Amino acid sequence: MQWRCPQTIKTGGFVKRTVEAVLRNKDNVVFPDKEKAPIENICVYHSHPRWIVDKWLTELQSIEEVEALCLANNIEPPLTIRVNPLKSDRESLKKALEAQGYASSMTEFSPFGLVINKKEDIFKTESFANGLFEVQDEEASLLQCSQEQSRVNLSSMHARQWWKIPVPCRTHEKPWNSDRF
Known about the structure:
alpha+beta, 4-stranded antiparallel β-sheet, extended, disordered C terminus
């Protein structure tokens, strides 16, 4: 038998009832007046802490721009995955995921990225189970590319054949071939 803290049981029910009550009465929620208290309105309506709204207002000097930033900050980002170049390439993974019911598109900058249109159960796919990809945003993937580029340049100075070593971010080949060294 598994032991559970009694407070957890009571708190869980309280939270559930509170959320259900809010959802039942969501049309009756009163927000601070936008004209009289614009900062409070933005904080409550867009669910942002006061300190960050104040900081953005100081930097942007426009309540409209701060509200637009808060609105944009609440948009759910797309799911971006990075192909494991040791096990697959982007085109092959794209086809495999489409066969499993997951449409995708190529990332704009990263040669390893795919943007997945449907997020539900992506981690239950055969491709994920086989280690063909991991979740990673495009910016982080580009950072990895720059780090691999540095490693290639440093390693190549020892080999004195830096122009022959493939750069992992420019190709989908495996980055190192043992017969080169």
